[in-house]
Amino acid sequence: MLGGGGFRTPLVYGALLRDRHERRVSEVWLHDVDERRLATVRRVLAELADGHEDAPVVHATTDLDTALEGSEFVFSAVRVGGLEGRVADERVALDLGLLGQETTGPGASPTGCAPSRSPSTSRAGSRPSRRTPGSSTSRTRRG
Question: Which pTM value belongs to this model?
Fold first, then answer.
C-alpha cells in the first residue's frame, strides 16, 4: 500500500480483516516516505488485528522496491505535495467558483491527474508493473 502511513490505511486494513474469501489477502506491505507515520499506523493496525487469529501480516518500509517486490496488487493512497498539495487541488475549483472538494470534486481526478500530481507520481505508478509483472494498481487520494 503506497502512502501506507496515511489515515485511509486502517480503513483498508479493517476491510481486509473482515474478508473471508478463500483467496483473501494474507500479507500487507505498507510504504511511506515518513517513518514516524508508518510506525504510528503499524501500532493502529496491530490494535485492529488484536483478536483476529488470521489477520494479514503487516510489514512497513520506506523503500519502494522492497514494498513492491512480489506484490500481486498495489493500492496507492499517495498525496503528492502533502496538505499543501491538497490545498492547491481544492483551490483550482474554488478559483472557478466551484465546490473545492478534492476527493470527488473538480480538484480530483479518477486518473490521478489533479493539479498537484507530478512526474514522480507517474514514475511510481509505472514501477509496480516493472517490479511485479502481472500486478494491478488501484489509486486513491489521501486527504
Answer: 0.70
